[in-house]
Amino acid sequence: MAKYDAIGQTYSASRQEDPRLAALILAALSDARSVLNVGAGTGAYEPRDLDVLAVEPSEKMLAQRPAGSAPAVRASAEHLPVADQSFDAAMTVFSVHHWTDLRRGLRELRRVARRRVVVVLRDPRRGTPFWLTRDYLPALDPTPRFSSIVATITEELPGVQERAICLPRDCVDGLFTAFWARPEMYLDADVRRNMSNFALAAPEDVEPGLETLRRDLRSGAWDRSYGHLRSLPELDLGHRIFSAELV
Questions:
Q1: d(CA 24, CA 18)
Q2: Helices in the chain by DSSP H: which ranges?
Q3: Which residues of the chain are under the pLDDT cut of 70?
Q4: 3-class DSSP state for residue 156?
Q5: Buried (b) or exposed (e) across 103-120, using 16+ Cβ within 10 A?
């Protein structure tokens, strides 16, 4: 069963496309007119004025794609059901850490794309350290795993270039780091349910840290340490667009 068949039941409730992130991703696709979107989920960040085919392994996620979304097929990144060089670009947004074989998946992206490959992910070694994992939920810190993921991307996509994505304070997409200036949101079980970091974590790795955060918000301790974040317009927490030209 695809992972998100279990944890993606209500994904579209809080995981929606942020238009500012979408604009950066569209710019990275450059002059591509046809795009294969791998790990497409519910359709966020798919360019609406391009010829797009979505690939997603989870039936639950496919069922949440809104009317008018690009056509979609159920398949995995490691076995893309399309011919060689059949799209101008292949893209994947916040999905590579769920693939079963990253190297094979990246080679599939290269196989099906004529011009470029675009990969969006968070490299937690970059940007500002995230207070939530540093101070409250260290078991959810993805740094060791993502170090390997980024290394594999640079090996499999020669000449790859990266661009920073700063998350806006009012980010619409409720991804794990989205509420860096709205800490109260992490106490909402419905919000956490649609973040894989929480959904895949053991309760004992989450509940004590959340209780500490709840206490620190009540006492004002969080604001004494991090209250300045509430007034920042955006913050670099390591999110990056990796783009590789194939021609």
A1: 10
A2: 3-7, 19-29, 59-63, 102-112, 131, 143-156, 189-193, 196-199, 203-219, 221-226
A3: 1-14
A4: helix
A5: eebbebbbebbebbbbbb
At 162-192, the pLDDT tens digits run 999 999 999 999 999 999 999 999 999 988 9
On whether the pTM is more than 0.85, the answer is yes
Picking from 201, 200, 221, the residue whose alpha carbon sits closest to that of residue 212 is 221
Domains and CATH numbers, the chain: 3-245 (3.40.50.150)
Let me know if 222 is exposed, middle or buried by CB neighbors in 10 A (0-12, 13-18, 19+): buried
Strand partners, 235: 167
- Looking up tokens 């340490």, which residue turns up? 225
pLDDT for the residue numbered 4: 52
Answer yes or no: are the C-beta atoms of 77 and 100 closer than 8 Å. Answer: no
| Phi, psi angle pair for 37, to nearest 5° | -105, 110
- pLDDT in the model for residue 193: 86
